[in-house]
Amino acid sequence: xxxxxxxxxxxxxxxxxxxxxxxxxxxxxxxxxxxxxxxxxxxxxxxxxxxxxxxxxxxxxxxxxxxxxxxxxxxxxxxxxxxxxxxxxxxxxxxxxxxxxxxxxxxxxxxxxxxxxxxxxxxxxxxxxxxxxxxxxxxxxxxxxxxxxxxxxxxxxxxxxxxxxxxxxxxxxxxxxxxxxxxxxxxxxxxxxxxxxxxxxxxxxxxxxxxxxxxxxxxxxxxxxxxxxxxxxxxxxxxxxxxxxxxxxxxxxxxxxxxxxxxxxxxxxxxxxxxxxxxxxxxxxxxxxxxxxxxxxxxxxxxxxxxxxxxxxxxxxxxxxxxxxxxxxxxxxxxxxxxxxx
Amino acid sequence: xxxxxxxxxxxxxxxxxxxxxxxxxxxxxxxxxxxxxxxxxxxxxxxxxxxxxxxxxxxxxxxxxxxxxxxxxxxxxxxxxxxxxxxxxxxxxxxxxxxxxxxxxxxxxxxxxxxxxxxxxxxxxxxxxxxxxxxxxxxxxxxxxxxxxxxxxxxxxxxxxxxxxxxxxxxxxxxxxxxxxxxxxxxxxxxxxxxxxxxxxxxxxxxxxxxxxxxxxxxxxxxxxxxxxxxxxxxxxxxxxxxxxxxxxxxxxxxxxxxxxxxxxxxxxxxxxxxxxxxxxxxxxxxx
Amino acid sequence: xxxxxxxxxxxxxxxxxxxxxxxxxxxxxxxxxxxxxxxxxxxxxxxxxxxxxxxxxxxxxxxxxxxxxxxxxxxxxxxxxxxxxxxxxxxxxxxxxxxxxxxxxxxxxxxxxxxxxxxxxxxxxxxxxxxxxxxxxxxxxxxxxxxxxxxxxxxxxxxxxxxxxxxxxxxxxxxxxxxxxxxxxxxxxxxxxxxxxxxxxxxxxxxxxxxxxxxxxxxxxxxxxxxxxxxxxxxxxxxxxxxxxxxxxxxxxxxxxxxxxxxxxxxxxxxxxxxxxxxxxxxxxxxxxxxxxxxxxxxxxxxxxxxxxxxxxxxxxxxxxxxxxxxxxxxxxxxxxxxxxxxxxxxxxxxxxxxxxxxxxxxxxxxxxx
Lengths: 342, 288, 370
Known about the structure:
Mean pLDDT of chain A: 81
Number of strands of chain B: 0
Order of helices and strands of chain A: HHHHHHHHHHHHHH
Radius of gyration of chain B: 22 Å
Strand content of chain A: under 5%
Number of helices of chain B: 10
Helix content of chain A: over 70%
Oligomer: heterotrimer
Number of strands of chain A: 0
Shape of chain A: flat
Largest sheet of chain A: none
Radius of gyration of chain A: 25 Å
Helix content of chain B: over 70%
Largest interface: A-B, 53 and 43 residues
């Protein structure tokens, strides 16, 4: 049956690879962390011992109890199976260590909106700006401005966002006190749809967003420019000119539309990976998002939280990639034809 | 190697990148000659050589930091360390990645699928948290161990690039010709394929090196740098924590950031120059 | 997007009406030079071409690959991009003003790009060489045709669509083609789409650049037939560029043979084929196999085509010409109307008529006897 429906076979293949890769990545992460010669309970006990200069006695039972609570009892394979069972069947990521007994999934749910809002907006904004400027830079590639802009973009795109972040924090935040650089909103305003809260949330988001946008937009400008230059060499551009269409129309409907497909694909993939590169930004700006949660849980070896967040990140990246793979045949008729012909 | 001279001749970007990188490397190499006169015979990372938080003076052109170290020495030693970590990690990642990518591309079939899936799994895992976790538990954070950890997550990129190139090259007529002429596989690899891979190898190496340096700085900035040496990332960490700005010691922050930016930009320009060689349409158009 | 940069053109007003025997001129190209700036120097791809295209004729522009014929028409249509540019020359296009019916001449080589844009498609249309790649892959056929119609005329989208369907029918394509994407069509169908598109606004001039080169002979025949039909129905003037002499034999009323960037011979097709004047043309005609006649050895033209970076001195064909003399190596012959009185003995032929024929060869001037 599969031979008769190549498109269906393609979808199934992609989905199977998706599941398999997620499983593999998750398993690697799980074992890497749990095989480290530390665990949260023991290190917490040691920290307490240090703090109070005392030895814990009779702690055996309590330690075991807590280990069981966190799913750290038994052999590693037992832990693994138990964890998988919890996640897949009971949809429970376990209790977190840093905020015991709050469940990991609740903790994530609290913080996810901030991360998504900040990063999602930054990425989309960079994409839109980058596409427009990149198209102009590619179209007018012979002008000096375009050349200078390209070099600036190359330089900007290579600077890690946190370097810019550090710079912004110290100059605009600390030295000039122009913009806030800590937290996501002013604590004096309760969360809600009040103008005060919204305004403070926006001003707090400016510096972190700028760190991300300045670097991302450079990347999009460069990729769009390269794409447009390639498209400019195509015959259908010359033909569009021969038809006497206005320059702006040619840019929009002939050049940009052909660049859109790869760039939209790239955007989807970037959005999927949005949780990856921003750990440091959130740490630097003490932004209450997923990244900051992850950093604290790493320092305390809170395996459950770490695994939960990493799992979320893996699934997010893979899902974006899968959606792109599934959508491509629907959007680009050429791809659909080649799949059916294969 | 023709591509090197061709890129040099044709690409301003390439020349800029090579020259800038060469200058930086030169500074890193002659660094001891600059800081030995200042700090004498002790290790550059040793605290207490001077008084803390001294403003810039004739003896300490950039002042001293919170541990009593000369900031200029911090910078030079940090430059050496960061570059070393970057190149070593880059080399490890590229070597491993090239071998994997090559085998995957050349052999194809099940071997290819298995290797690619494995590489994809590694790519999907957010590398930074794992790096942080691994560094936290490594008791002795030496330069080499850090480089190794950083290389662990960089190799899939090189593998991917090489694999794609090998795949497209495998179909090329000159490879088919070599196969038909009954040359042994290994011979084909060395004489036909490898020379054409060189530009991509170099680009992959450059990417891995930059990636490793970014990773090292990223770890050091939150305090997870190597133990007994200074790196540029650690300087940035110190600068943040010790409010060096209020003390007017801008060098502690600006020098490493500036150097890092220059290094990244230089390597990127080199990469772009190579890219232009490989895809001539991206070159600047001549004529009126 | 910058295309051709124009030279400082003389702003002399073009005459309103010209006569050339019994026919009216549509396009007069004078001393057209189109050069390319390369790292190796200036490539003089088109280097002094004079030719006149008359109304309602099908003019065949012939010549081997690299002679500059495609560049010539692209340049006149202002589609040349850096590093190519129009070095000098004029291309006066006599368009009929819709209001007064008067003929106004505009120099295509020197008008602004926005004026050129206004002339495009409604007055001068273009059928490109590789239709495979000339259609936008992410737009439906109908959208690509309609956008040009709407751009140049004040019709509604519905009217534009009807016009397009009518033209598709004219080239023998079913209406279902309109909603398709380019990759769903065969090469021949795509070429017919571009032909249909080009005539949607009934332009005065249609320039077709090797439209059938990439297609197999059967499709080629069909397309040529369709071109003839369209021309008969709409009364267009067509410039047809091709290296294939057989096609010209079938289609063209008049022909121009180019070599090494200049025009070597111009005349009615029948004259050119039965009585080629220029030694190069003779070589071309001789190299066409004659199917159905007794088999003879097909001869090519000895030597290699020269490079536009370094055209031969004097007559550009002299290195390969069996008749070359000293004067040919020194002086470049100008394209001039044939004068029966000054033909060299070895080139004479009885019963030859000179009307409408020009040639650039010393054999046909007094210089032969110097």
